[in-house]
Design goal:
elongated; single chain; 434 residues; 0% strand
């Protein structure tokens, strides 16, 4: 019994020690686990807070969801590391996540505030530049390849209306006082300028005022008068022949019908329509070289023969507009839309012209190409209508006289007859035919 007593005491002591160890173990585990849980909780809350705010800001700023998910996973990584090493890692996520909160609004706020200003700052010079470039840059209207007849009619009539506003004073550029003078002057205008004809006819009509007088004239004397117009022998034969026809067949009067006019020597459809439209007030289309060139440039027709051009253009306009249409087109062809070098940069109908760019497009250079009153030079008529003078037109000088304000090299003194071979001075408005 005495030997067993110590064993009981030892066993009881052993149980107490074991119990104390068991009781101490949870406390130590709690002590060890408490910082981990706390740190993990702090790290989770610290890392979770920016995630929620980032998600809200992401949705507000329109940042893709994939980018938010990537940032969330990146922010959760420090939480795991903190759980393993609580003491050194505890302040680190808080410091890293704190700038993330401040950085997020800083990244979003400037974008919202700056984008409208930057956009307006960039847009303002663009508008100003476009406003400055608008007058110089011309965008021509290119007609479609398969343009309908209705669209062609509308486009052609719009161009004619614009030309009517540019040349409200358009008129025949031959000096005449009656139908006889007009038909003779028109015959003489072939292969020369109206200016040279106007400078020559005063002497002709001064000596032969009627068809009867010209029919009985000496051909050599007429040739000498008509020499400055060129082809003077053929022209002398024509004007004497038509004067005889007027005297013998029409009682000395110019007929007012197309079929009668074309029977006169040297008179074709073009000359006949000039006489009918301007001496008798009957509509007609004058298909001269300028008219042919421009209607093809504007793609009104692709015909090349005068008769076919006349028929094609006549179908685009009412008959009442034919005469003034001819004046508008011819005026424009002589002053701006030249044959060799059109002044595209100074053309008032350039936005409507499908051939824009064939000539000089620089406004300053194009301005120097303008002729007659558009370029500040005299016109072709010595006695133009008052409407032309009111519009700023300058009368042409007599034969042999220099243009007003211009010095023509080799020109004769005022009133002196010009040499037989004299022609328009180089660079003068009269260099272009008709």
């Amino acid at each position: 019994m005495r030997a067993a007593a110590p064993s009981k005491k030892v066993a009881a002591a052993t149980k107490k020690v074991a119990a104390s160890k068991k009781a101490a173990a949870p406390k130590k585990a709690a002590k060890k686990s408490t910082p981990a849980k706390a740190v993990a909780g702090k790290a989770a809350s610290a890392s979770g807070t920016p995630v929620k705010s980032t998600a809200k800001k992401t949705s507000a700023s329109g940042t893709p969801a994939k980018a938010t998910a990537t940032k969330t996973s990146a922010s959760s990584a420090p939480a795991k590391a903190t759980a393993r090493k609580p003491t050194p890692a505890t302040p680190t996520p808080a410091k890293k996540s704190a700038p993330a909160k401040k950085a997020a609004p800083a990244a979003v706020t400037p974008a919202k505030a700056t984008s409208p200003k930057a956009a307006s700052a960039k847009a303002t010079p663009a508008k100003a530049a476009s406003a400055k470039a608008a007058p110089t840059k011309i965008t021509p209207a290119k007609p479609p390849r398969n343009e309908s007849h209705t669209a062609l009619v509308r486009r052609a009539r719009r161009i004619n209306r614009e030309l009517g506003e540019v040349y409200p004073y358009a008129h025949p550029e031959l000096d005449f006082e009656n139908p006889f003078q007009l038909v003779v002057a028109t015959v003489l205008s072939a292969q020369t300028t109206d200016l040279r004809v106007n400078q020559t006819t005063p002497a002709l009509f001064g000596k032969y005022p009627t068809p009867e007088d010209l029919a009985a004239a000496n051909p050599e004397e007429v040739e000498e008068i008509l020499r400055p117009t060129g082809f003077f022998r053929a022209k002398t034969k024509s004007v004497i022949g038509l004067s005889k026809a007027l005297r013998d067949d029409f009682g000395g009067e110019v007929p007012g019908r197309l079929e009668d006019l074309v029977k006169l020597p040297g008179v074709g459809r073009k000359t006949a329509f000039v006489v009918l439209g301007n001496a008798f007030g009957r509509p007609g289309i004058t298909v001269d070289t300028h008219f042919q060139r421009l209607v093809r440039r504007w793609q009104w027709t692709d015909q090349t023969e005068p008769d076919k051009i006349e028929a094609a253009i006549g179908g685009l306009f009412p008959k009442s507009e034919w005469t003034m249409l001819s004046h508008h087109v011819i005026f424009h062809g002589r002053r701006i839309c030249h044959a060799r070098k059109p002044a595209c940069g100074a053309c008032p109908i350039a936005p409507l012209c499908p051939a824009y760019g064939e000539g000089e497009t620089d406004p300053e250079k194009a301005q120097k190409l303008l002729k007659y009153e558009k370029g500040g030079f005299p016109g072709q008529r010595l006695n133009p209508p008052q409407s032309y003078l009111d519009a700023g037109g300058i009368p042409a000088p007599p034969l042999g006289a220099p243009a007003p304000g211009a010095v023509v090299p080799g020109a004769s003194a005022p009133g002196a007859p010009a040499p037989a071979s004299a022609g328009p001075a180089p660079g003068s408005p009269a260099r272009e035919a008709g």
